[in-house]
Amino acid sequence: MTRQKYISLILILGSLTALGPFTIDMYLPGFTAIAKDLHTTANKVSLSLSSYFIGISAGQLLYGPLLDRYGRRIPLYIGLAVYIIASLSCAVTTNIDVFIGLRFIQAVGSCAAAVASMAMVRDLFPVQDSPKVFSLLMLVVGLSPMLAPTIGGYVIASFGWHTIFIILAVMGFAVLLASRFGLPHTRKPDPTISLKPRPILLGFKEVFSNPQFYTYALSGGVAFSGLFTYVAGSPILFMEIFKVSGEVYGWIFALMSVSFIGTSQLNSLLLRKYKSGQLVYFGLALQAIISIAFLFLALNNWLGLYETIGMLFLYLGCLGLTNPNTAGLSLAPFSKNAGSASALLGAMQLGIGALASMVVGEFLKDSMVPMVAIMAGSTIIALLILLIGRRNITELAENTDADAAMIH
């Protein structure tokens, strides 16, 4: 593979992966405006974020078997078409309940891109390169939290929140064109893969029964729910509690992404000296220390705006270190059913994240303590899952395809 082709694939796969995060982040500065326009509250608007997470989680399980059965292209194109239509519908709705439902449909469409990109990483690159590829994808994805809320804040101030969803529809169409003309056929349809419920469930059971998968998928998903907690809680935290404007909130959100992106790229350098399993353990242990300190400071009311930004910056940096490694280690043992494995991984991660976002949206009102408590609790649970689960892994598949076959 030439360097130009490699970069092209990374950019297109990154755009597929980034579509969902961009859809999440870009409308966040509009929570107050949407609440006012649809005659509701910011907490009710936050349910549209939770419904989006639920939609992605459910859609992952739908697209995984479809991508294995029909190849990567057709399910991807259909999903993106659904996304475009739902985005345009969000732009014209006048009812908050309809808006929440449309966000669910929008998510089901967008997650086709997320599942396809993860499966194609496994199709196109050797197992030993997947953590590095995921880190590069995070660099592309990282432009979303850097750019989306900042752009969204100014777009909303100038043109209203409806314009956000028109822009998202245009982005979906651009990603569809890039996928059609820039991605190779990575997998032929496999008619031996059944789409009946029982074989699908048995396939997911086979994936989940792999000790390496459930250890790193669960620990990574629970740890990563801290990001969903932050995303769901940050509009209320900064715009309702700290009373910053939508534009300022966008810049704060962009600053936070620097930490996440920076450590995900540092991960690529660290992988030259350390193994993925070592980095996951170190990242989760550091995240636990930071989150416990964060909770202690919040409980004693010792955090102002700038101190809160600093603690969140440190916390999110840990996620940038652990997430690409848990994703790579979760998928390493699989080849034929990589689509189902990536779908189950995404469903678990997003399902846990949806639950966390719903809880924080319900309890975060006039204090940051509920948000920080969820972050600390999820991190401690993730670390315990890792410590217990890795005892059942006889040999870690992270270096070669031969290792992956041995584990599988």
Automatic annotation (TrEMBL):
Gene Ontology biological process terms from the UniProt entry: xenobiotic detoxification by transmembrane export across the plasma membrane
Keywords, ordered alphabetically: Cell membrane, Membrane, Transmembrane, Transmembrane helix, Transport
Residues covered by the Major facilitator superfamily (MFS) profile domain: 9-394
Annotated transmembrane regions: 7-29, 49-67, 74-94, 100-121, 133-157, 163-183, 213-236, 248-267, 279-299, 305-322, 343-361, 367-388
Cellular component, GO, one term: plasma membrane
Molecular-function GO terms, alphabetical: sodium:proton antiporter activity; xenobiotic transmembrane transporter activity
Membrane topology (UniProt): Multi-pass membrane protein
Pfam family, one: MFS_1
Cell location: Cell membrane
Main location: membrane
Record CDD domains: MFS_MdfA_MDR_like
Protein family per UniProt: Belongs to the major facilitator superfamily. Bcr/CmlA family.
PANTHER family for this protein: MAJOR FACILITATOR SUPERFAMILY, POLYAMINE TRANSPORTER 2-RELATED
Protein name per the record: Multidrug transporter
Organism: Flavobacterium subsaxonicum WB 4.1-42 = DSM 21790
